[in-house]
């Protein structure tokens, strides 16, 4: 008999998120989080081998003489959070922009003046590989401590080919060197660098960068900041069609600051996810639903931009758009690593229920980065990525905000972080 290496048992409430590995949950299914009371999960060789009540897992014979037992009585157990939209790799910080923001200078105006994304491009370029990795590792450690076990990581603070390749290489190295699994996205189309206009830079991305990025095999997704004043619908479409030709999977920053047909383009191109979407039109939302495009909502960004403007999440759920949640972790519009904070803002301002928010932060987030076959739910065969939350019930998760509810993080069956 093969025994489990680890069994977590007696959970007050275990949310398995089972049943949605083939396709993301949408509509009323986003509330179906597969609760087991007195729950247990067994893990062997990094993979889940059994999920059920403590009694069932015990009766199935998974507990042997060397099995490590963790008692989760009184606690909530969930899959590790998946953060499907981050710009976590960079050097430097932008706290100087706070006073500009408080004076009302718009985000894109700061960028136009050479600040914003372009200032992080400068600070990242000036930093050594070791400095970038050290600063990013600290953020990844914070993410892990707050329950994130898998995260997407975009390039985009390089902009020129060599710097973008360096960013993607560093993401790969960090993926190997620390516990959070990273999914790499090429986002050369993050801003237009000085010395270029949009058209020339789009030509450079399409003709020179993308073929080389694809040839090196360092990126799985391609993303574009599709926004009037940054990359137009036409430029975004050219870049994403080229990326698709080169077998990259597609994502889009769409309709964040202005309603400009980003959601409609995302649906037309059949991207895996369209992200931000604060200003998505009714037609855009309907088109996302028709095409099954996942809306990755970033409410911590809305909170931090401080304009009292949030994505129309309830209308999206109603229309049948599958929702995911992410931090957007970056030095400008969302300097946070905290998925628990995102869940709180999502409940209070996107008006999601705690169940919908949990679905959006786990299994639907896994779909948004094409990892739902491996993570995002507690089901047999998936990676043993499990959180023990020191809370008595699920409502408590968004309710008690500004602190860390995570007591222990299990990554591939091993304790990766604990209080
Ligand atoms: N909107 C574009 N990109 C990031 C912000 C990056 C930055 O400000 O450094 C975002 O998703 O919010
Ligand atoms: Zn972003």
Automatic annotation (TrEMBL):
Pathway terms, separated by semicolons: Amino-acid degradation; L-histidine degradation into L-glutamate; N-formimidoyl-L-glutamate from L-histidine: step 3/3
A Gene Ontology term for the protein's cellular component: cytoplasm
Residue numbers binding Fe(3+): 85, 87, 253, 328
Localization, UniProt: Cytoplasm
Residues that hold Zn(2+) according to the record: 85, 87, 253, 328
Gene3D superfamilies registered for this protein in UniProt: Metal-dependent hydrolases, Urease, subunit C, domain 1
Binding positions (N-formimidoyl-L-glutamate): 157, 330, 332
Function: Catalyzes the hydrolytic cleavage of the carbon-nitrogen bond in imidazolone-5-propanoate to yield N-formimidoyl-L-glutamate. It is the third step in the universal histidine degradation pathway.
Protein name: Imidazolonepropionase
